[in-house]
Amino acid sequence: MSRITVCRGCCCGSSRTVPGLDHDGQLHRLSQVAETRVTDCLKVCERANVVVVQPSPAGRAAGGRPVWLGLVNHPDAADDIAAWIGAGGPGLAPIPEILTLYAFTPAPAARQRQLRRSGGSGRAG
């Protein structure tokens, strides 16, 4: 099963930062398709709301790596992420074109913080 980390710290998940989005509904939708963890802050606040999709064990074995998605603020974004995970997610299904609009590569320090929180080693392989 894929795992999702959802930032809900100082900027992400906030009606002040991203008004008009059902933040709780987004979190609920993602939790329907994958183990979903909420973290305080991933230190990429300029990209609020941030979601990190971890590959399933099979996806990791196939070469999948975590995919960072930022500015996940469209009401349909959670459904798009859920559909990709349903198709296999990282390593097993190509990222849908619509999600490439959200994808970004975080600074190394942010990646390491997220890996420590999710139990990953940070090493390829």
From TrEMBL:
It comes from Planobispora siamensis. This is (2Fe-2S) ferredoxin domain-containing protein.
